[in-house]
Write a structure and sequence with these properties.
The chain is mainly alpha-helical. It folds into 2 domains: 14-134, 50s Ribosomal Protein L17, Chain: A (Alpha-Beta Complex), CATH 3.90.1030; 135-172. The chain is 61% helix and 9% strand. It has 5 helices and 3 strands, in the order αβαααββα. The protein has helices at 14-31, 38-56, 68-86, 89-102, 137-171; strands at 33-37, 111-115, 126-131.
Length: 172
């Protein structure tokens, strides 16, 4: 009997299940939409919503009554918690900077499951898990391109300076 056992096993070992759900949530935050079976998405949805709620704790409105030291401690704790559960600095930054602000006024229900037709090979119920106020694929591509350009700009400046110095030394 499965009394008082709320963990959905998904026919996997605990380590495999944890890694799979973590990867699904990271993909959800990165692409803001994923497709899988309904059973997996139900588990991933609860995990993702907990991560968004944790990220929202870092907003100023949630920390209004605390002094500066306590605010810093709470922000650090929440950031480390997210990093330990997601493992990707890029995703944690997106969660803290973009998603938490996007859902600041929403009390819950950050994701939705849209059911699709059953998979033909084994008749498994398929669905899409997406963020409610998500960005389009084109907007996400533009953001990534802007980040790459921003990251490449300091490297280009750093590379340009030593070349000028070498030319000056050769001229002497």
């Amino acid at each position: 009997m499965r009394k008082r056992n709320k963990v959905s096993q998904l026919n996997r070992s605990a380590d495999h299940r944890k890694a799979m759900i973590q990867n699904m949530v990271i993909s959800l935050f990165r692409y803001e939409r994923i497709e899988s079976s309904v059973a997996k998405l139900k588990v991933a949805r609860s995990y993702a919503e907990r991560m968004i709620s944790r990220a929202k704790r870092n907003l100023d409105s949630a920390l209004g009554t605390l002094d500066e030291k306590q605010k810093a401690e709470k922000i650090l704790h929440n950031t480390r918690y997210l990093y330990s559960h997601l493992g990707s600095q890029e995703i944690v930054n997106k969660l803290l900077e973009d998603l938490s602000n996007r859902y600041a006024t929403r009390l819950g229900g950050y994701t939705r499951i849209v059911r699709l037709v059953n998979r033909q090979s084994d008749n498994t119920e398929m669905a899409i898990l997406e963020l409610v106020e998500r960005k389009t694929a084109d907007e996400l591509k533009e953001e990534r391109a802007a980040k790459r350009a921003k990251a490449a700009a300091p490297k280009a400046k750093a590379d340009a300076k030593p070349k000028k110095e070498k030319k000056e030394k050769k001229a002497k």
